[in-house]
Amino acid sequence: MTSREAEPCGKRAQRPVDFAELRRAIPGISERMLSDRLTELAAGGLVVREVDEGPPRRVAYRLTDAGAALEPALKELGRWAESHLPGGGEDGAC
Question: Which pLDDT band, with edges at 50, 70 and 90, does 9 fall under?
Answer without folding.
Answer: low
